[in-house]
Structures are given as structure tokens and as C-alpha cells.
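Schema walk-through. Below, the input block comes first and the output block second. Nothing else is stored per chain. Lengths vary across the set, and this one has 447 residues.
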Amino acid sequence: MTNENLPATLRKLSEIVDEYDTKRAAIPERLADLGRAEKAIETGATIGGTFTHSIWGRGGRSGSTSERDLEAALLRSAWKHVYDGLHIPKIAPASDRARYDQDLENPPPFTIDNIRANFGKYLMDPREHILRGLAEVFSDLDPAFRSHTKVRIGAKALPKRIILHGFGEYSFSSWGQEKLKDTLNAMASLEGMPHVHAGDISEMTREARKSGEAMWWGGRLKVFRNGNAHLFFDPHALNVVNRGLAEYYGDVLPDTPDENPDQRPGTDLARDLSFYRTPAKIADILLAEAYPRRRDGTITILEPSCGDGAILDAIRRFADGNPQQKISVYAFECDAGRAAEARAKGYPVRVCNFLETVPTPTFDFVLMNPPFYGKHYQKHVEHARRFLKPAGVLYAILPITAAEDHGFVTRPKWGRDGWRDLPVGAFAESGVRINTGIARFFAPDRD
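--- output ---
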């Protein structure tokens, strides 16, 4: 029999019992050490103590974590620390808050450049975003709140209530309550008041169902059996909305020398006061709406007032993405300086007053962004339609007044002229914040 087959030598029983008693007594301290270590790990994965989510597995602190988990938690904490520190939850429009919440799930690297790219605009002018949030939420509630003419200070046509859908007692949709929360919070941000939360809205809805109506700081809420809710504004709340929207939308500069261009005869040249450059994003939306493609031949496109070529740039981007489609462009521009900029990009531009040109119905498409002031855009659109082939189509970026105030576009007009709302503040970077949209027209002969 070899030594390796012998049983292990057992220590003295007293030694084993002593070790057991010692370690049993130390369990609370070891657990305290573990807690301190876990706390240090959790704190080390936050910036300024901003906690975003658990770094542990499903077992909580008894679960597991890794270096990758800690780095991800630290990145989210850093972004949320800046997000909360800039008070973005209080001042950002609901659309921005939803996007930021989504971005926090997979945030970009935490660098100075990325911070400025994401949040820089909130450092410049916080009130701008409070006002934009008000405009965004109210633009979906009633057409009157979209019109810069109807929300001017002292306007008497603003509705004293709004109708919200999705408040049925057995409704599975939360759209109505979310819209109510966004509406009240947009007004609260403007007034510097605390925001309401989902629980507050649920309680208000229950109270309205039970008692017939529920009060809020600016009026009352009534919920009906058909699933609609009516939010009523008292004079103070309506004044808050009126002044906030009026401040945001402001007005556009006149494009003719006199104060009333609608009464001015002829086609006098605009004075460059109403030039609002089409942002690249909006120009791309215009091209996507028009989608100038066909199976064979070359498509001809006219840009009547091309400025420095923003829409022409979008046409070029569209053509680059659709190399099989041949596109020929031509443009007019009244300002020699801007025309020179467009020509430097390789575009054929004629310097003249478009309204004084002789129409030639040779174009498949007209894409344009005419002046926004008053009704002067109507002259541009009607003149531009005469440049279309019989089967041609015109797409114009127009102020919201074309659809809501002037009756120039009817929505919907089945199978004929169409309208698509552009985002609130679509032209803010160009110096005007009125609401706009894209209207579709056809050649005069098709009317």
C-alpha cells in the first residue's frame, strides 16, 4: 500500500472549531466590506452621482458585472448628468426629450465636440426651446395655433379650448393623456411652474370622470364618454399661450417696399427683405415629396427664385442618389450676388425678376420657395405654374397662412392640390419661425 492511498491527515478538531467560530463571527464585517466595495464600484460608474441603471445582473448585487458594463454605465451617467444639469427635461420640447431618452440607450462617445453638438443649442438661448416646445405641442391641437397671423398679440380668434382624443375609459391608447401632459408642461415651462407627471394626469382624468370636470391652474378638464377630453383655458392661460406663440412665430419681413404689397400693382422687384434660405434638410424633404423620376428621358426642373442654390443643391444630391435618372435644371434669381454663388456651383441661373419673365411651358417640375410675406407668394406660384408642361407638377414651400388663412390651398383636396406640414421651426436657422408646408399644384390646363 502506497502513501497516496492513505486518508488525509485531519487537523485537531479544536483547531477546526476555532476557525469556524472565528469566520462565523466575521461574516457581518465581510458583508460590510462587500457592501463598501459594491458601493465603490457603483459610485465609480457615475458622474456626479447621477445614476441611470443597475450595473449588476439579474441577481441584483448578488449578480455579476464586468468592465464593459461599468464603462457603459459611466457613459450613460455622464450624458444624463449634463442633460439634467442643463435643465433640459424642463425646457426641451417633448420631441427633443423623447429623442434624448432614446439616445441615452446607446449614447455617443462623451467628448466636448459631441456635447456641443447635442446640447450646445441649449446653452445659447434656453427660452428659444421653451417657446418651440409650446409651438410644437399646440400646432397639433388646432389649426389656429399654427397660424402666425392668428396668434399675434391681441388676436381674438384663438380657441378657448382644445379637444384631445384617446380618453375612453377602456381605451388602450395613452396618446390623449400624453398630449395633455405635454400641453400642460409646455405652458408650465413658459410660466416657470413645476411640471406634471403621468400620475398627476391619471388623477386629473379620474377626477374629471368622477365629478364631471377637474380643475388645473389654467382652467378645467372635461372627459366625455365618447373618449374625447376638452381642455378649457381661462383668460390668463389663453394669454400665456397667445403671448408665447406670438413671441416664437414673430412675423416675416415684407418683400416689397410698401406696407401693403397685396394692393401694389405690377411685378416690382423684391428688395431682398424676404429672402429666407431653404435649409438643406427642408430642401431634401421637398425633393422626397416631389420625387422627380420616370422610366426614360431627361426630367426638366425649374427653380424660379433659387437664391444661392439651396434647392438646386438638394436636386444635385437627389441626382447623385439616382444616377440612372437624367435631370436638367434651370433657375432664375433676382439678386446678382446670390445668382453668382449659385453659378459658382455650376448651375445655369438667369439674373432677372422671375415675375417679369415670359412663361414657356417646357418643364416637368417646378420646385420653389417663394416669399412668405402676405399673399405675395401667390403671384409667384401662379406665374410658375405657366412654366409647366401639361402633365407637369409644381411643389412649393409656402407659409401656413396659405392653407389656414388665405384659402390658397385646401387640405385635403382629393386628387388635386395637396399639402404637407413641415416641422415647427423648419426655417428657424434662416431667420423666420412661422409654420410652413409643401403644397402641390398642376399646370393651369389641368384645372
